[in-house]
Design goal:
The complex is a heterodimer of chains A (123) and B (173). Chain A has 4 helices and no strands. The longest helix of chain A has 33 residues. The model of chain A has no long low-confidence stretch (mean pLDDT 88). Chain B has 173 residues and is an alpha+beta fold. The chains are: A mainly alpha (123), B alpha+beta (173).
Chain lengths: 123, 173
């Protein structure tokens, strides 16, 4: 009877850990799919899209995850095939400098204006 | 004087914004991947349409030959429209046509070929669309020109028309 209990606990814990691992894998896969833009239903991510293109991309991402390809390498593969636009999160490079730096510049400019105004009022 | 200067700066800024938005309104917001520029051909294994044997891409594309890879499916209406031009292209001896049968039912695909003719020297099966993604395609039909250096030198989105046909002939001349 005791042996049966031990086996039952072992079996349940294996099932539990496998489920947990699957859940983690799905989360990782969904994170990647949500960052890929569907080229057919533009404005939708591959995760949300039901197009033929999206279903092929889902299969490819699945395959790459199984092959233990890193997230960045998956994005690189897709960028090489379809250009930067396919990824929602643009990389910091020559033609995206303005995109990344302009908000920071505007933030500091706004801060400087605000600081000046406040110091004038305080005077 | 100071107020005048800030007004001028504000005015220039507004004009700058107006030009940016006006230009943006005229731009198409539908993205299409680049169709020119050399790209490496993918390395893959695919099943042959007739024999069902797994073939290595290295054995399909050889140096010093032009290849046209055409993605098609029997359910795709524009593929039917471009087919007569593909038949014409198949008569040119300096080029080999490779068909990529995309997410298709094999019986329907066989009927399509027997009804309209077979312009392809080889047809590969792409059951789940992975091969099309490897080529950088996102729809059907799409056509890729592979140069003598074994690189994709040009890609055509959508069906081949007379203009594209003439352009292909110029490339492979």
């Amino acid at each position: 009877m005791n042996i049966l209990k031990v086996f039952l606990i072992m079996f349940l814990s294996i099932v539990f850990f496998e489920l947990k691992a699957d859940e983690k894998n799905d989360e990782f896969k969904n994170k990647i799919l949500k960052n890929i833009r569907c080229l057919i239903c533009q404005g939708q991510s591959v995760y949300d899209s039901e197009s033929d293109f999206a279903s092929s991309i889902k299969l490819i991402v699945d395959q790459k995850i199984d092959e233990e390809v890193s997230e960045e390498k998956i994005y690189e593969f897709l960028r090489e095939k379809y250009g930067d636009w396919i990824i929602y999160d643009p990389k910091l490079k020559k033609n995206t400098y303005i995109l990344w730096l302009l908000p920071i510049l505007l933030f500091f400019l706004g801060g400087a204006i605000l600081y000046k105004k406040i110091s004038i009022i305080n005077k | 004087m100071k107020n005048k200067l800030s007004l001028i700066i504000l005015f220039i800024f507004l004009i700058f914004c107006f030009i940016i938005f006006y230009k943006g309104l005229n731009n198409s917001n539908i993205y299409t991947p680049k169709t020119s520029g050399e790209k490496n051909i993918p390395i893959f294994k695919a099943k042959d349409f007739n024999s069902n044997i797994l073939i290595d891409s290295e054995k399909i594309f050889k140096k010093n030959d032009y290849y046209i890879v055409n993605i098609w499916a029997s359910w795709c209406v524009p593929c039917r429209n471009e087919h007569p031009l593909l038949m014409e292209l198949s008569k040119i001896k300096s080029v080999k046509l490779i068909g990529l049968n995309y997410k298709d039912n094999s019986n329907n695909a066989k009927n399509f070929i027997s009804e309209l003719g077979n312009p392809y020297s080889q047809i590969l099966i792409d059951k789940d669309g992975i091969l099309a993604v490897e080529f950088g395609a996102y729809g059907v039909p799409e056509t890729f020109i592979i140069g003598k250096n074994k690189k994709i030198i040009k890609k055509f989105l959508g069906p081949i028309n007379q203009k594209i046909f003439d352009e292909i002939k110029l490339i492979i001349k």
